[in-house]
Specification:
homodimer, alpha/beta, nine-stranded mixed beta sheet, five-stranded parallel beta sheet, 16 helices, 26 strands, 30% helix, globular
């Protein structure tokens, strides 16, 4: 069980077949075979070792999607190192935290991100060498990717595997600093097999990497599609038109998009101008999917089968899936696509209460996960690791319930649940109701201290420019949508956008803080 | 990674769905849900512990196929024990060897095999308790299966997993005594995932257990279909009509048969009288498949997709597969079904020479395997284990080559290859040629000492009753089929059937022995 086994197998069973393909900057197509990619990975690994990467050392990357990003993953593993893919939406101080926390020795940057280097200068002392992924001449002091690769003699695969650390994936940020999720070779290979068992890739599939490759959701395909010897196609970053153009040009059969991307694509004015009929399987995940979007997608791409993938970085990442059999509107599985599906074949899921006892079906608790895909822990955070993995189960922080058929429904983050007058209120459900009020641009629902109710359901609302509404109007609107005890009892209006984390999630602890000062509730 | 996880997941995602189904002795259908089976396994495990089964202790079973055989596997794992399924075609002394070598503490027998117990009496001292699987009253001194199950309180799953030993599967016998292949939980679960990745089981599949369940080929389904929560249907033993009847009655979607069974089924005079259209996937494996048989099968069961599974007990067992994409007659993969396919996604295969160096594509060497599915070793045979697993690779003993597309072709057992005049001759190929001579009932081709050629190709032939042939006729016939250097230079005629191992393979060491006495060739 080691990541480069998949690459070696792909070169063994499809030496001349396409491994990677991308449009080069000059507009030509850059297509490489599995045989070429295997050779390049063995040489890049050699170059990385010459640049000082030893067994277990970290190599970080900050770049848009490309075939070289793909090679970086496998070369790092081949060299015996640990990859650290960096979120491309971070501000320089956050990038500094990821690099210094992981003590990365080598940093890879592409043309898009080399401009950030001056802002990092002097703040990332662990980095001894920087490699430039661009096709043009590298900035002063950086190594040119193709030059070091060309100059290197291939080395044998280090064949680290099983419990050896493969990658650090930083996550979080809504509550404090990002933490490095330690995923071993076993974690990632186990995930490959969960994915392959349920997604039913056919030999010869063509996968499009459209979401950013630093994200574990795209890494599923980096490693999983390789294990099946399927071909990888890349666009530098997601745009609706770029994605549709790529699907049409390369007759893409498979991709995974986050719900926002699906939404932007299927509701794009030009969606009818592209031939998307090659798409056999469209997976979506990483955040909740609005029902209207999936219904529109099923209508716009009727050839495709739809899969919902649910999980977290900590589960490498697949926890559960919903396949095409539950994307239906009648029969016993009608509308089960509203859930996040059933546990993946090799993954154990239990819904547990605060005492770590499994709750009966239908009752809300914390979604907990066990299996060979569950992370080793948080990098250099033994206490947080012990807390998260207590009792041998990964505590996801997601509140949810399981129905009698084993389908899992996520209701809210456990920390965002509100207990008001003894009733559980899920902020996500209330936010959905508030959001449907036409004048609302965005909103967050939190619990605030209340003498009568313990916690009171409170909405913080930003209205669309030029629109107006009163608290009473919004509360009355909610009473038409959801039970009375769930409705906000107070509404605060703000004019600034709500504070977001690097991952684009609303920072609720920040919103809760002023209300809870002097009270005892844990607000992080 | 532990076997009972699959069972628990199945009960979680399909509590009321069919787990097992068999025709009971009274002619009624005995169908159990996943919820029931889970409860029964937890109770049977409890009963086994009460009968003295401790962690790592062995429990053996000698029985025809049934739902209870299925429960035995999972209950043994649940109790923390190690299962030892016994070949149903063995003579009592061989059964004694398997039981005493494994030191099984508990023995399960059904009605069919309880008659063998007197022949075992006094010879299997490790066995402290015997459990009777039959529905009638048990023979004196045996525990009734349903009675001990009913009396037991369920125990929690022992949750042995990963490197813990799960089962001992005895194999071999053509060369000396059977040896116990040690398969861990990780080995068997890894195999599940290789199988699920390529066989593309759909949710709701119905699997027929027709080959004997002691065999690793059927265990693939015992564990793999459970991990997918698919339903298990059983017939006590294979017969062509019984198999076709079961497929029709239960609308079976999946099964795996050995080539002989496929042959007997598709060439059965009544094949046209059964509706086999429910069969979506027919896998075959465990011995070479004659081309005529697979062609006939594709014609008789046109709805089915065909899969060839190749492997050994030592690889738990899947090494490589050929899917429907290579069961074709034109295009780039035409006739690739003549190979044993390409390595399974998580399995490494190399063809290696006698110095353990990988040979170039197209050259014959020994098929060697590495991966999490490879056995821990042979039970209490450290030297044989070290020899078989030298350099970290499992040496299969099969000679073969790999083509440029990664398809693997088995040519012969390495030990049965003949080097004659410096040329490699594969006995299996020569046997195929001899076998085509109409008067030949059976034959074995071996190398015998020869002053001129080093080894001489020698055929041992038994003619069909009432038929006649000369050595010259047979040799002349071979010259029409294969190259001259491969043809037998001498033929010996025998009248007794050739000596067979328990697994039905010709015992070539026995045939070679008289020729090689006083010479130095290793004949085992």
């Amino acid at each position: 069980m080691y990541l480069t086994q998949g690459l070696k197998r792909a070169a063994q069973v499809d030496f001349d077949g396409t491994s990677t393909c991308i449009m080069a900057p000059d507009g030509s197509e850059r297509r490489r075979s599995w045989g070429e990619t295997l050779g390049r990975v063995a040489k890049l690994a050699s170059a990385m070792q010459k640049l000082g990467l030893g067994a277990g050392d970290r190599a970080a990357i900050l770049a848009l999607n490309s075939d070289r990003y793909y090679e970086f993953f496998f070369a790092t593993a081949w060299a015996g190192g640990v990859f650290v893919p960096i979120n491309i939406r971070l501000a320089p101080p956050e990038v500094v935290h990821w690099i210094t926390d992981s003590e990365a020795k080598i940093l890879f940057v592409d043309k898009a991100f080399s401009a950030m280097l001056p802002a990092l200068a002097g703040k990332i002392p662990s980095v001894q060498q920087i490699v430039y992924l661009g096709d043009d001449d590298p900035p002063q002091g950086l190594h040119a990717y193709e030059a070091i690769l060309k100059a290197a003699d291939p080395v044998p695969d280090a064949e680290r595997g099983y419990e050896d650390l493969a990658g650090l994936f930083y996550t979080g940020g809504t509550t404090g600093r990002s933490k490095g999720v330690m995923l071993s070779h076993r974690n990632l290979v186990s995930n490959n097999f969960n994915v392959m068992s349920v997604f039913h890739y056919k030999p010869g599939s063509r996968y499009l990497h459209a979401p950013p490759m630093f994200h574990i959701a795209d890494c599923v395909a980096v490693f999983g599609q390789t294990q099946m010897a399927n071909s990888h196609y890349f666009i530098p970053m997601f745009t609706p038109e770029g994605t549709m153009d790529a699907i049409q040009r390369w007759k893409i059969t498979d991709t995974l998009l986050v719900p926002t991307m699906v939404n932007m694509t299927v509701n794009h004015p030009k969606v009818g101008e592209f031939d998307l009929s090659s798409l056999e399987r469209l997976a979506y995940g990483a955040s909740p999917m609005p029902e209207a979007v999936i219904l529109k997608a099923m209508q716009v791409i009727p050839n495709a089968q739809f899969y919902h993938a649910y999980g977290q970085t900590e589960t490498a990442p697949l926890t559960s899936t919903n396949g095409p059999e539950s994307h239906v509107f009648d029969g016993p599985l009608a509308y089960k696509f509203r859930s996040v599906g059933r546990s993946a074949p090799g993954v154990e899921v239990q819904i547990r209460d605060e005492n770590d006892v499994e709750v009966p079906r239908g009752e809300v608790g914390e979604i907990c996960v066990r299996g060979p895909n569950v992370m080793q822990g948080y990098w250099r955070q033994p206490e947080l690791t012990a807390q998260t993995l207590r009792g041998g189960w990964m505590h996801s922080g997601d509140g949810g319930y399981m129905d009698k058929d084993g389908y899992i429904y996520v209701v809210d983050r456990v920390k965002d649940m509100i207990i008001s007058g003894g009733e559980n209120v899920y902020s996500a459900e209330v936010e959905s109701a508030v959001q449907m009020f036409p004048a609302v641009a965005e909103c967050a629902v939190i619990g605030v201290p209340d003498e009568k109710w313990g916690e009171r359901v409170h909405a913080i609302v930003r209205l669309k420019d030029g629109q107006s509404a009163t608290a009473d109007q919004i509360i009355a609107h909610c009473h038409e949508q959801i039970a009375g005890f769930k409705c906000p009892r107070s509404v605060a209006f703000v004019t600034d956008p709500l504070p977001l984390s690097g991952a684009g999630k609303i920072r609720k602890p920040e919103l809760r803080k002023p209300y809870w000062e002097g009270h005892t509730k844990q607000v992080n």
